[in-house]
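Chapter summary example.
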Amino acid sequence: NNSHIPERLKSTVYCTAIRNGGRTEWDFAWQQYLSAEASEKTLLLPAMACTQDTDTLNTYLLRSQDESLVRRHSAPLVLRYVGRSSAGKEQAWAFLRDNWD
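The structure predicted for these 101 residues follows.
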């Protein structure tokens, strides 16, 4: 339950928890994303790109291509968010090259 986190701080709290956490924290955020309302998804989408784990970032990029998991219009945002992180620049570039069509 995240109702005790002030709305204006949620994105910072989510990103910090995922950046400093591990796969367990990322998986928790992913599960929250899958069942969240649109406004919460908007906060979770960039936060999940805060992980420093490149395998998790690759998983995120792959999942973003599945329209049953991530809305079609949100997939480019995932690529953008991953590419903005120092840990994800190479993964985002490789993913874009490999999936360009």
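To summarize the output: Residues 25 and 46 are 14 Å apart (CA to CA).
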